[in-house]
Design a protein that fits this description.
This protein is mainly alpha-helical. It has four helices and two strands; from the N terminus they run ββαααα. The protein has a domain of 57 residues.
């Protein structure tokens, strides 16, 4: 049975699917400076990166906070998602 629970970050680009830390690094690579510099973490072994990714994901609300309301995306942002 298919689990519809989203429990990791998935990034799809040019026919390639990236997950977890690799997905986050691929997104960072597309951003402007200084975020682009985060791609340097690609030199860290994937097992270590994914461990840290899971650790941060587990504690994300403590680290980044939690909002009580969701953002309503603009048309430009909506166009970035797959229907």
């Amino acid at each position: 049975m298919l689990n519809n629970k989203a429990d990791t970050f998935v990034y799809f680009k040019e026919g390639v699917v990236y997950i977890k830390s690799k997905a986050a690094l691929e997104v960072l690579k597309t951003l402007e400076w200084p975020w682009k510099a985060g791609y340097l973490f690609i030199i860290v072994p994937r097992s270590v990166r994914d461990f840290l990714y899971d650790l941060i994901a587990k504690h994300r609300y403590r680290i980044f906070g939690k909002r009580s309301k969701c953002m309503i995306p603009t048309t430009e942002i909506q166009n970035r998602f797959i229907d």
